Amino acid sequence: MISAFHGQDVSNTYVSIHLKTFPHEKFKSYRKETSHPITTDPKRDLFLQLASRVKKVLKGRTFAPTYYYAKACGILLIYFILEVLAHVNGYPIWNMIALGFFGASIGLNIQHDANHGAISRNAAINFYFGVTQDLIGGSSCEWIIHHIVYHHPFCNTFDMDPDIDGHSMIRLTELDSRFAFLAPIQHIVIWPILFGYGITKSCIETIKNTLFFHFQSEKYPYPPQFKKRMPYTWMLKALFWFRWIFLPYYLHKQYPWKVMFTLSVGGFYLGVFFIISHNFDGVKTFEKSKHHNFFENQLRGSSSLGGEVLSFVNGGLNYQIEHHLFPRISHCHYTTIAPVVKQFCEENDLVYNYFPTILGNIMSSCKRFKSVSQFKSQ
Predict the structure, then answer these.
(1) Are 259 and 199 in contact (CB under 8 A)?
(2) What's the rounded Cα separation, in Å, for the pair 41 and 298?
(3) Does the residue 376 lie in any domain?
(4) Residue 196, number of CB atoms within 10 A of its CB
(5) What's the average model confidence in pLDDT over 231-250?
(6) What is the CA 267 to chain-centroid distance, rounded?
(7) Domain range for residue 78?
(8) Is the pLDDT of residue 212 over 90?
């Protein structure tokens, strides 16, 4: 973990992954020389009480149950069959749209748990399920750095969490003082923009990050530990280009524009659920200098949505609160632990953001986008 998080203080992140305090004395020789104190969460003991309840309910079964493997293999099989049909039949639009949905399903149900190390105690199983991210056009290496190294430890922390960086196009937090040219209408245009999310990730960002180590910068340093994964990313990225650039022209003399339907549908589906889970009316965003209350920040910066059916379809990622608190617990257990987390929050006067319907969550997100659309100087 120390190597993977590349010089960051992992005291709080370690607690959420291993559900116990970081052994500072045992590893003090690895502590980075700094004038800053160790950032121990002031509510760490409260979180450990919740973790104890969750472990008691799960009876030690935190990894994926047996039926999960049938579900994961079924999703991969359907995706493979749809891809074969596409290559054989000349890429009909319905086929490409279906591929987009099942590509998103791989992202939500398989690679996400795998790259969090939540499927199995066996690292090899997590690794091979994790590279399915590369199979659908992404980059598992880039995703781990973006999502696990930066998004999770700094959830909704401005200038640290890449997911609330509007890149001067939109404004996702009142802390962002930059000019955002779509801000006045962002509550409307953000939804069609999400159709470009999959295309951007697959055709621009992963190429840039995979080939040129884009994350190797002062803001997002590239952890050396992940460089050993790069050959797999390069190989599977080349395979993706072969499948969707070379084969369409070789088999049917078609340019690969129809794959954009797949990437757009998959990216839109993923993007909608990702963005509404951390952008809603009442959500809290944080300044980097004040991001110390790790437990409560995860609660105040995330929301949970719906129930068991949506959890089955979306790989449990409608339960963002449960996921952010316990990222190494398989999503198959989120429906079990959600009532425990909610009750614990009520008992301890902690925020628990919950939306019973998707439409309600989307409307709340629109309200949030509108409220932060204009920068107001302090």
Answers:
(1) no
(2) 12
(3) no
(4) 17
(5) 88
(6) 13
(7) 11-371
(8) no
- In a domain, residue 6? The reply is no
Q: Tokens 């039949």 belong to which residue? A: 89
- What percent of the chain shows pLDDT beyond 70? 88
Tally of domains in the chain: 1
* pTM to 2 decimal places: 0.91
**Per the domain annotation, does 127 fall within a domain?**
yes
Contacts of residue 234, defined as CB under 8 A and 6 or more positions apart, other chains included, come to 210, 211
Look at residue 210 and tell me if it is in a domain: yes
Whole-number pLDDT of residue 378: 46
Q: 156, 321 in Cβ contact below 8 A?
A: no
pLDDT tens for 67-119 read 999 999 999 999 999 999 999 999 999 999 999 999 999 999 999 999 999 99
Query: So what's the pLDDT on residue 214?
Result: 46
Q: Classify the phi-psi angles of 200: left when phi > 0, otherwise alpha if psi is within -120 to 50, otherwise beta.
A: alpha
> H or E element: which one contains 338?
helix 334-347
Q: What is the 3-state secondary structure (H, E, C) of 93-149?
A: HHHHHHHHHHHHHHHHHHHHHHHCCCCCCCHHHHHHHHCHHHHCCCCHHHHHHHHHH
**Residue 304, phi then psi, degrees to nearest 5:** -110, 155
DSSP string covering 299-316: HHT--EES-HHHHHHTTT
